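---------- Forwarded message ----------

FYI, see the Dipeptide epimerase record below. Original note from H. follows.
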Amino acid sequence: MRIKEIEIGEIFVPLATPFKTALRTVENVEDIVIRITTDTGEVGYGEAPPTAVITGDTKGSVVCAIRDFIRPAIVGMEIENLDGVMQKLHSCIQKNTSAKACVDMALYDLYGKRYGAPLYRLLGGYRRELETDLTISVNPIDEMVRDSVDAVKRGYRILKTKVGKEGAKDIERIAAIREAVGPDVKIRVDANQGWTAKEAVHILTAMEDRGLDIELCEQPVKAHDLNGMRTVTQSVATPILADESVFSAEDAVEIIRTGAADLINIKLMKTGGIYGALKICAIAETYGVECMIGCMLESKLAVSAAAHLAAAKGIITRADLDGPSLCKIDPFKGGPDFLENRIVMNDLPGIGIQTVPAFKEAGK
């Protein structure tokens, strides 16, 4: 099975409500998608969100990386030589992790189709079903409480609440949500780099003192501030999850080695795809550090790829794969079943996405 062509397009999927964090506000999923065709007629799909505020990637940079560097490097290579293709993919251009992830997932999609098996089984087949949280955007407290209660009514048992924009007011924000949803719902907080180390210690200690029972805190400080994050990790009882600080296997080793965080958040758009994510999984398994699988603002296509990785690996103990639930519509056919808080894998080969509708050429 030889790579014959790579086509680049765009998709547009409106969100049910605006997505708000300490870093940005987004109203629609507007992502780059690709279609890789082989000489046997098989097709593999990939997706990349242009998340410049985190990865540095824009639509233009993703398209340029795929069109001008990745495509010439791998067209003509055989899917059966997956490791060789991946080495070429990751060496033909530096950084551009979202573009690499887009191509990577399409290649793994084809790899599964080549051998007639769902990808999660080829990668390890640890489980068939996942439970995901649902993100509660940062808004006025009464609105966040209302969104949290609605999420619980929909069946979600884990909430990931965005904080980091108003300092100590986040304590009252989480206290109000905890009172509204009761003690049995897990609450994760995600500051998206919005606090200083001193603020994080103060806020998380106050949450602990008030018995708010926070499962974890994600990326409390700036991505580069590993010393600050280590201070937070050593000063509070709440587990600290490194997100924007971890792009590569080398980043994971440094964070684990220095004790900068308790947990690692894997996102395909940071790791350059499944190939890089598997390396982080191997490191985490060696050190006994649990991982969470997350996503950017991605549609069902990219989130399905992440779900396959999560279903394959036991070291991934938590899932933040709510992208499809945040979208107003599901324009895709196939893939895992996203049933509110439950993600159920099936036996479709590869990633399982069978069609990408309105495959419009990028930039047209």
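H. also flagged this: The first helix runs from residue 59 to 74.
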